[in-house]
Amino acid sequence: MSPLGVLTNPDGFFDRASDDPSLVGPALVVAVVAAISAAASLPAVRAVQQAFTGEASAAGSFALVGGVVGGFVAVFVFWALYTVVFHVLATVAFDGSGSLGRLLAYVGWGHIPAVVSAGTSAVVNVVVFRAVTPPSNPQQIQGFVRSVRSQPEFLVAGVVGLVVLVWQGLVWTFAVQHSHDIDLRSAAITVAVPVGLQALWQLWNLF
């Protein structure tokens, strides 16, 4: 069973998936998304780092490492958070009967579409930050970030991110349905709550 079946037929993919799936495949998918996300943050963090000179250079190095590591770890944190929220809603609100481990694997597979949004962000960051002048001192960072975020390329990346989030929500709906033995409507409501909140947050930051 090809993992790409998640993209073309998520209902059939999870219907045929193991009741006791391995976490290796899903973890690799999440790791790929996390690596791309970390790489995407590198141009921005490097630009900010250049504002720290002299005695403050250590702070700049810390910001560089922290930004890249944080971008990587955040993807795994959201994987776990989404899984826990889906599990709680499905079991408490809709009397679902699936295991947390099974759902964790299924939600991990649902990160495959995120390769598109992470890749788009990486390309946009490289293009935009290659064309701007980094700040020369830490006091200019806030204004620099505001000016960069107003670039139209980031609007494109944001829209792509929202579309991919909706795509993931569709995949996760079938993941919850098949992992917790509930009807499609209940699974859709389960997924819509956290995904809807995330979409609102992304819209807020976009505009």
Commentary on this structure:
- This protein has helices at 5-8, 10-16, 24-49, 57-94, 100-109, 114-130, 141-149, 152-180, 184-206.
- It is mostly helical.
- The chain has one domain (18-206).
- The radius of gyration is 19 Å and the shape is elongated.
- The protein starts with a helix and ends with a helix.
The whole-number mean of residue pLDDT values reads: 89
* Proportion of helical residues: over 70%
Q: Please indicate the count of domains.
A: 1
Helix and strand pattern: HHHHHHHHH
Distance between the termini: 41 Å
* Number of helical elements: 9
Strand content: under 5%
The major pleated sheet works out as: none
Give a concise summary.
The protein is mainly alpha-helical and 207 residues long. It is 79% helix and 0% strand. It starts with a helix and ends with a helix.
List the topology elements.
Elements: H1 5-8, H2 10-16, H3 24-49, H4 57-94, H5 100-109, H6 114-130, H7 141-149, H8 152-180, H9 184-206
Helix pairs in contact: 2-8, 3-4, 3-5, 3-6, 4-5, 4-9, 5-8, 6-8, 8-9
